[in-house]
Amino acid sequence: MVPRYARPQMTALWEAEAKYRIWFEIEAHATEKLGELGVVPESAAKALWAWWETNPKVDVEAIDAIEAVTKHDVIAFLTWVAENVGDEARFMHQGMTSSDVLDTTLAVQLARSADLLLEDIDLLLAAIKRRAEEHKYTPTIGRSHGIHAEPVTFGLKMAEAYAEFSRCRARLVAARDDIATCAISGAVGTFANIDPSVEEHVAERLGLTPEPVSTQVIPRDRHAMFFATLGVIASSIERLSVEVRHLQRTEVLEAEEYFSPGQKGSSAMPHKRNPVLTENLTGLARMVRSYALPAMENVALWHERDISHSSVERFIGPDACITLDFALGRLTGVIDKLLVYPERMQKNMDRMGGLVHSQRVLLALTQNGVSREDAYRLVQRNAMKVWESDGALSLLELLKADAEVTAALSDEELEKRFDLEYHFKQVDTIFNRVFGAN
Amino acid sequence: MVPRYARPQMTALWEAEAKYRIWFEIEAHATEKLGELGVVPESAAKALWAWWETNPKVDVEAIDAIEAVTKHDVIAFLTWVAENVGDEARFMHQGMTSSDVLDTTLAVQLARSADLLLEDIDLLLAAIKRRAEEHKYTPTIGRSHGIHAEPVTFGLKMAEAYAEFSRCRARLVAARDDIATCAISGAVGTFANIDPSVEEHVAERLGLTPEPVSTQVIPRDRHAMFFATLGVIASSIERLSVEVRHLQRTEVLEAEEYFSPGQKGSSAMPHKRNPVLTENLTGLARMVRSYALPAMENVALWHERDISHSSVERFIGPDACITLDFALGRLTGVIDKLLVYPERMQKNMDRMGGLVHSQRVLLALTQNGVSREDAYRLVQRNAMKVWESDGALSLLELLKADAEVTAALSDEELEKRFDLEYHFKQVDTIFNRVFGAN
Amino acid sequence: MVPRYARPQMTALWEAEAKYRIWFEIEAHATEKLGELGVVPESAAKALWAWWETNPKVDVEAIDAIEAVTKHDVIAFLTWVAENVGDEARFMHQGMTSSDVLDTTLAVQLARSADLLLEDIDLLLAAIKRRAEEHKYTPTIGRSHGIHAEPVTFGLKMAEAYAEFSRCRARLVAARDDIATCAISGAVGTFANIDPSVEEHVAERLGLTPEPVSTQVIPRDRHAMFFATLGVIASSIERLSVEVRHLQRTEVLEAEEYFSPGQKGSSAMPHKRNPVLTENLTGLARMVRSYALPAMENVALWHERDISHSSVERFIGPDACITLDFALGRLTGVIDKLLVYPERMQKNMDRMGGLVHSQRVLLALTQNGVSREDAYRLVQRNAMKVWESDGALSLLELLKADAEVTAALSDEELEKRFDLEYHFKQVDTIFNRVFGAN
Amino acid sequence: MVPRYARPQMTALWEAEAKYRIWFEIEAHATEKLGELGVVPESAAKALWAWWETNPKVDVEAIDAIEAVTKHDVIAFLTWVAENVGDEARFMHQGMTSSDVLDTTLAVQLARSADLLLEDIDLLLAAIKRRAEEHKYTPTIGRSHGIHAEPVTFGLKMAEAYAEFSRCRARLVAARDDIATCAISGAVGTFANIDPSVEEHVAERLGLTPEPVSTQVIPRDRHAMFFATLGVIASSIERLSVEVRHLQRTEVLEAEEYFSPGQKGSSAMPHKRNPVLTENLTGLARMVRSYALPAMENVALWHERDISHSSVERFIGPDACITLDFALGRLTGVIDKLLVYPERMQKNMDRMGGLVHSQRVLLALTQNGVSREDAYRLVQRNAMKVWESDGALSLLELLKADAEVTAALSDEELEKRFDLEYHFKQVDTIFNRVFGAN
Q: Of C13, C274, D96, D414, which has the highest C-beta tally within 10 A?
């Protein structure tokens, strides 16, 4: 976790105190059910909850000190609770194994992280939607291969991002479901020393589903899917970030990250206004998606379990969630405050001498009986002249002067093919598909 | 694609001929709808379908030869079709762009691949289920960290695999839905020169859903999610393969890959019977999951599209699907024919002098009033003696001779804790969770 | 391996026939030495070489047919050789194990592939150097964050690429050394049944070094390092490709991939000239670097060896080498024929109203006694006006009109800071560093 | 960075204070040279060094507070230094750009980290060597595919690890050289405002080499190579760790991680002694190698530079170095204190009824005139009986009873092939290769 790429709410979820709080809840809920079943005295859970209601400070240092001796984190924690609660605490953890606590805790942390990330995505979607509506009909050139292609609108670019992050949202909901399971099944997962109803009880209290079959650990294919999903979301963040970076290039400058007063773009060059937020997001995306592979390597634990997954998860559990949370928040800010320059968009589009309309002329020629091959040749030979003139020549004028072209299309018919609005007639259809009908 | 790791049905889906067949269908369905809309003559689609009904050979070499000149694959294909169908073919591809054909084709190939992979998983699940039921109550030692823990059954191991591949199945269904979209939206995706109803028509005919907003290309987050999902499935294949490899180790030998008559395990050592199939699957899993990252890097195409994704997909499209198909098939064979040795399982379990029952004694001590810490100490000091004797000593006998232990537990109470069946009392519950109630 | 991204010479190295030829050589060289040692008759090697000198066709199908029965590739090959050579062939492979042949063969293939790749890099370096010298003093704007920074020359861009690929070359030489080892050490690598001098003999004949200690297999850290190195080289290919893609953007257009007559950029838009080669290289780079991870996962084989690495290497051995060879060749072609537009470079540089000189003014102010903070503020406030005017205003004129500025710098002093040549005074120094002194 | 996987010396290198100390040194060394060149007063560097000699506390909070306003880290640092040193400090950073400081600092941090890692590897090599010599002739079974193959010695296993980490050491030396460069070349790297001799001076003082051509940043192929190399080293750590984990399995138990008094292997099962250190190392290896890919993605910065690499390096710079340092230290401890059980090794070897000698019989048969195919068949048919008896039958006895075998080999000749020492006759040769001749 890199503090500068972390926000407090998500970070808190991954701190020691939050972890120990979940540990306590799992142990106390389990003891409660064990009391109901008559395995331990009902007084045990009562003592635990009574102490908990005093809102005791979770003394992380004290627990760490015990762990330094026992070299076992859960035993250290149980010892610390026993020191505080007293004799009744000895009934805790009956028939359970450490993994019951650890894995269920990780499930809670990941599920709560997913909830925050879903909120993040909702805020991002709202920002994107607002900008989409604002620029629904703002013309801008569509580019394939970085080369001018045909006109689109800036709103369409936003609609695409909206659709993409809506898909990311749905994937995250699925990944959250995948990860939100509870295992309280004892050593090697046989429930030999603990009744399955304890698991069901704890699951219900914590908003999880019981793991159908665990092997001391919750199977790691669930986590692999979770982190892979975060990697895909990060890649979508990269895509929108790269779009902004491209739009802000000096020669393009159709949009720009907000530049706050007092901000210095460069210590050496006072004139600079750089897309540093989206460049940063590009890097963060690389990190988040890199976590997918160690998560996948974690799946093949030996037999019922080994502990090799644990160190990996100590890194990627917090790092993936915290970094993605930060990145979504930063991207939302970028989109929300993005400076959009419609005049520059128009200016860029105009610089190509009308080349962006070449396809419509091609179609018109074929519709008027010219073979596709001939039509392509006729348009291309004029287009190349415009291209080589760097937009100084006009495609329309050249076509009007080409006898082979005018044999098939009148000047008026040609002019009709250079109408910008023509390209936007389905924008509303697309918006309805993406944002729903009005 | 490595031929030895490929099966014909899946491979055929990715061959040039299959691709061109899908191209034709897309073009013909689109022309059909364009005819209905009056954009092209209705005779065009009729001519195309009439020719198609003659079941013409798709002449891959001829198309390649044209491409060598045009340097454009779709134009080469259209030219070849025109050479065959004649004049009416010039109405094909009206208002479309190459990506409409290429991306929709990839969607069809991936969706059909997913269908085959789903069938593969179903066969694997069936094999696992059969072995699970066969060995529902076959005792075997559960191992954590490679060390004996407590008893499980071989059926439980199979149940876990069944649950895991059931999750994989559900994820693949979701990934298939994600990928199975159709884009016929023209240059930069504005539908400027083609009505959205054409897309809807082609989608419906090919069993796809229309892409809500495309940008000439279908957005690559869909593909990233698809390949990431295959990577997770591959990781689950690795897990079950590693389990078999461990079970087949000389010292363990609780199960073994089927060894066919005439097979030679080693050119140098005639006595060898190696788990080569599951080792091979371990390697194949590494490959399939490695494809997730380039797929994620493909997401951030520049602006409306660039072509950098294409070369990546020429590798991983076929390679991921073909290799995973092969791996699932191979794993199904391994499980189906796996030689299982219950006697050896029992023998291995017995070699630890009863250590596997240590937890039950621990619990019994605490239930009879010994503090958890004392109980742990009492059991551990006897367990370590057994451990150091390499199973020559018996934990039960040592405990009976430990005065601090017998102060809390009678011989009879101790013996009760060494009952193997005790561990299996929830096996049926778990089976019901995994396979459904009988 | 994707045929369209493969060149014949490299591909041939990885075909079955080439592999079997190396197998034969290893076996024959080893038999030769075994003859010298008196382990087998000297006639054996003579018989083998005598047959080999007849230049026999390597009958891949025949060998495959035998393997279908034996399920063991090396035994199948030995059987086939025996069928051809006759009785003397039974002395082949004495004391050896399959891995001796397979791993040494892979070393030969990788070493020969590295040799081809080194030739590729040399050709690329030559092309880059030629363009560097051609454009040593061609002014172009340097860009940080995609934003105009200060002037550089196009030759400097090429010099950087030259230095980078020179480093790649050195790394590949090291990786080749790492991989080029020979293991003929028998089962589990103890030389129990074969004298170490056989290994030394075969190594010397094949241009390899003997593996100091093998464990039946050559240790896979060597291969991991090799493929990781190819991944780094691929990433450098991506860097130069991305540079070209950026330079070819419509609004930038400072350079362009060569566009051959008759080429069609788009089936729909006849005006397009797209940087498809470098986009393609971007994708290929993603693939080649993705192979680093499975190669690293291959390192941790179980005990003396398992076979999980094998399937991975059947993919990435040929795919990494063939794809990188193709990519280096393609990049060389791109650089060699790159269309470079110096006028456009100048035009782009001029469009910023002199902002690119802001740092020099900043330095002049501080040198004349203005505090750094004040100097920054003074330059920035004028620079922002130019920025917002989209280059219509001139920084020099604005500075001349700013009383706080002119209090420290005269008009003449200001003008001196707008001299382009100033930036190029160390170009020769850098060229000497990169290409060596003239 | 996960604190529990971090050691203080390496961690300190990556803390803010260490970074700022390097920043100061770079600036002061550069100012010194600029003074010599007459660009700034010589008094400037003197003032800086005079203050530095007072050993001032680097006030990280104060610098952070300034950065919160300027949003630029280097400017914040320079401002803080100026507040402390006074007026002379304004001459710092003349003609430099932030990246000159940042990139050279990263080079220093990585080079110093590499130095620590090299020390770590030396300690590991020493531990391995000691155990190798201790167990040079301790017989143990060599295993391929997890299956008994032929005898090796435990010393050979250690020799292999020694050779592997020696290679890792050499690779790290090369990677250190690759990364240890200094760039003080100003905006876009042209030295327009700073003389190359400043770079040479700073490089010499910091033990770096000057970067031949930088583009404001040091090219990231260097870093990619560095992190890829760490990934390979991590993979070698995984290999040795997996070996220990396998040896510690209950059924194998030929070696064991040291188990300290008072340690608890499991909260639920008091009998457990788990290889938790090497399992942990397996996970850490997954993390370290995962960093190779984002490092490779960092190479293709846009034009002269973008800032996307920075966030990646804030993670992987410290995380890769700190984690690998910890892992090397932990592995050294594991090897140093590893409990090795030669009796158990012998016992395991004996359990296969002599199957491990099958190859020698095969060779003896062929040497006495039996065809390879027949010899294989004869040995295999007896070996399979032993195999199926689970080692109860003796291969030697069965062979003596097989008339086809005894037709070629006498009892005495057979017995000679079951000599364990035979396998170790080249151990000394291998040790000389690995550790050098005595």
A: D96
